[in-house]
Automatic annotation (TrEMBL):
Residues 8-336 form the Aminoacyl-transfer RNA synthetases class-II family profile domain. Belongs to the class-II aminoacyl-tRNA synthetase family. It is an enzyme of class 6 (ligase). Gene3D superfamilies: Anticodon-binding domain, Bira Bifunctional Protein, Domain 2. GO terms for molecular function: ATP binding; glycine-tRNA ligase activity. It comes from the Bacteria. NCBIfam families: glyS_dimeric, PRK04173.1. One of its GO terms (biological process) is glycyl-tRNA aminoacylation. It holds the Pfam family tRNA-synt_2b. This is glycine--tRNA ligase. CDD domains: GlyRS-like_core. Keywords: Aminoacyl-tRNA synthetase, ATP-binding, Ligase, Nucleotide-binding, Protein biosynthesis.
């Protein structure tokens, strides 16, 4: 069930708390672009770091690249994107507005002015620009529509430099650009997006095994970032809907507030890309098996994960409202691993130097466990807790006069407040350090 109200609340919270801002906002915005703010940028880095550790760094068969966004346009001719990376477009003959034909379904008339619609035509979604001073066709370059292009074109460089044995993969995180006809649903359908992609090279007969392994890995990653398993659904994409390079695709769909939609994709790209680039560039991109002396073009399994759609899935599944101390409050039940701030430290009163000094000491101790420990001494303590709840900070630690020894039996203890329940405990600083360590393990 679509819940537009929930979507509006999430958009409002993410702006209020510095997660996501509309792109170019002071100039009235630019459709399909968003900027990550102070909290959003840390959340995004946490997601990307976790992906890098699971998909690249904790494995011996994975390598990284960071390819240029601007690439020789022949790459996108060979990959089939110049000819086929398009969506059906319809223009209204009366108001001249343009729509994605498949979004109009069977409406039959313009949804804006009820005017007559023209015939559908294919609209290529690659952004074009010019490299250098000339602005003619010979200088045309494209902003990459998928990061995969920079992986395939570096396949030979990786093989020649680190000599990996099959199966092995190349991972990359980076920006991709799509001139979407109808950007929509906040950071779901963007014109400038980030992708986390793997191209995993295998012997032709081994593709099914690798497909299953990456399929499991994607579910593990969903769990690791705190996306509930019951909100993720696999969809076997039928022949007619698959991208031109794929022989099998599973879409991982997520129950977004606006309906069940594609979160990530897993594709079997066969040897389509390496063969196409080998032909077009006249470069040998085959793999020589040292043992069997057999030479062949590897086949490819591609887990492709959009960073922005991952963040939207995390935010929308973590959004909560409840009643606490007689008030309605909002909080983000983020997994501590992903939360931008792991804890917040606060002196009960900001104008008492002895409280501030002790609170700074406690914060320094916690920073030894993790650097993302917030400091908040603004407004009353209730307001500070509400703010951190909305950021998704799992723990708040308050230093009061008892910490300083006003009640001798409580000296050097602090209040630890738990985000999800609002419960508070009196603990020593070293117990709080342990709690934090355990939560981040
Ligand atoms: N290299 C394969 C590829 O790009 P895709 O299904 O077109 O396949 C992969 O895109 C992932 O990129 C999607 O599953 C989604 O997470 C993300 N993505 C695609 N288009 C997007 C858009 N316009 N805005 C945000 N994310 C997008």
């Amino acid at each position: 069930m679509a819940d537009q109200n929930l979507m509006e609340k999430i958009i409002s919270l993410t702006k209020r708390r510095g997660f996501v801002f509309p792109g170019s906002e002071i100039y009235g915005g630019l459709a399909g672009t968003y900027d990550y703010g102070p909290m959003g940028v840390i959340l995004k880095e946490n997601v990307e770091r976790l992906w890098l550790s699971m998909f690249r760094d904790n494995r011996d068969d994975m390598f990284g690249v960071d390819a240029a966004i601007l690439m020789n346009p022949k790459i996108w001719e060979a990959s089939g994107h110049v000819a086929g990376f398009s969506d059906p477009l319809i223009e209204c003959e009366k108001c001249k507005r343009r729509f994605r034909a498949d979004h109009l379904e069977s409406l039959g008339k313009c949804p804006e002015c009820e005017g007559k619609l023209g015939d559908a035509r294919q609209f290529n979604m690659m952004f074009k620009t010019h490299a250098g001073a000339a602005e003619d066709d010979s200088a045309t370059v494209y902003l990459r529509p998928e990061t995969a292009g920079g992986i395939f074109t570096n396949y030979k460089n990786v093989v020649d430099s680190v000599h990996p044995k099959l199966p092995f993969g190349i991972a990359q995180i980076g920006k991709a650009f799509r001139n979407e006809i109808a950007p929509r649903d906040f950071i779901f359908r963007l014109r400038e997006l980030s992708q986390m992609e793997v191209e995993y090279f295998v012997k032709p007969d081994d593709w099914e095994k690798a497909f299953e392994e990456w399929r499991k890995m994607m579910h593990l990653f969903a769990g690791a970032v705190g996306i509930p398993e019951n909100m993720v659904h696999e969809l076997e994409v039928p022949d007619t809907d698959r991208a031109h390079y794929s022989k099998r695709t599973i879409d991982f769909e997520f129950d977004y507030p606006f309906g069940r939609k594609e979160l990530w994709g897993l594709a079997y790209r066969t040897n389509f890309d390496l063969s196409a680039h080998a032909n077009a560039s006249n470069t040998e991109l085959a793999y020589l098996d040292e043992e069997t002396k057999e030479k062949f073009t590897p086949h490819v399994i591609e887990p492709s994960l959009g960073v922005d759609r991952t963040i939207l899935a995390i935010l929308s599944s973590a959004y909560r409202e409840d009643e606490l101390a007689g008030e309605t409050r909002t909080y983000l039940a983020l997994s501590p691993k992903i939360a931008p701030m792991k804890a917040m430290v606060s002196p009960l009163l900001r104008n008492k130097p002895e409280l501030v000094e002790k609170a700074r000491e406690v914060r320094a101790e916690l920073k030894k466990v993790h650097p993302a420990i917030a400091w908040d001494d603004n407004g009353n303590i209730g307001k500070r807790y509400r703010r951190q709840d909305e950021i998704g900070t799992p723990f708040c630690i308050t230093i009061d006069f008892d910490t300083l020894g006003e009640k001798p039996e409580l000296k050097d203890t602090v209040t630890l407040r738990h985000r999800d329940t609002g419960e508070q405990e009196r603990l020593t600083v070293s117990q709080v350090v342990e709690r934090l360590q355990t939560a981040l393990e």
